[in-house]
């Protein structure tokens, strides 16, 4: 009986270690930072579906937040690279619209977010 318990613990550990690793390195972000010219403009909560229009001296970008993901759905930039990038949701993923000096970066709600709100 004791031997079986020990075996069970080993098996549980073997199963849970990859899950923990996956959780740490493949986290989904909870917020997105929007920067224009490298300056922080807004923090967007990815848990709330929303459509936000950003207008700058370079042009406009319309951001959509849906199902925890964020993407640019409309912009008047010449190449539309930012729209073609699609939706992102993983921590540290970003969408950049070069002609508009516009940048979205997905962050988790821990250290980075705290560092910014300070
Ligand atoms: Zn663009």
Quick structural summary:
The protein is of the alpha+beta class and 118 residues long. The protein contains three helices and eight strands, in the order H-E-E-E-E-E-H-E-E-E-H.
- So how many helices? 3
Structural class: alpha+beta
Instruction: Provide the low-confidence segments as ranges.
Output: none
Could you please say which CATH topology applies here? mini-chromosome maintenance (MCM) complex, domain 2
Q: Oligomeric state of the chains?
A: single chain
CATH superfamily: N-utilization substance G protein NusG, insert domain
Bound molecules: zinc ion
Number of domains: 1
Main β-sheet, spatial strand arrangement: 2-1-8-7
The whole-angstrom Rg is: 20 Å
**CATH architecture descriptor name:** Sandwich
Overall shape: rod-shaped
Instruction: Summarize the biggest pleated sheet.
Output: 4 strands, antiparallel
Instruction: Tell me the helix content.
Output: 25-40%
Q: Quick one: how many beta strands?
A: 8
The whole-number mean of residue pLDDT values reads 89
CATH class: Mainly Beta
Head-to-tail CA distance between termini: 54 Å
Q: In what range is the share of β-strand residues?
A: 35-45%
Order of helices and strands: HEEEEEHEEEH
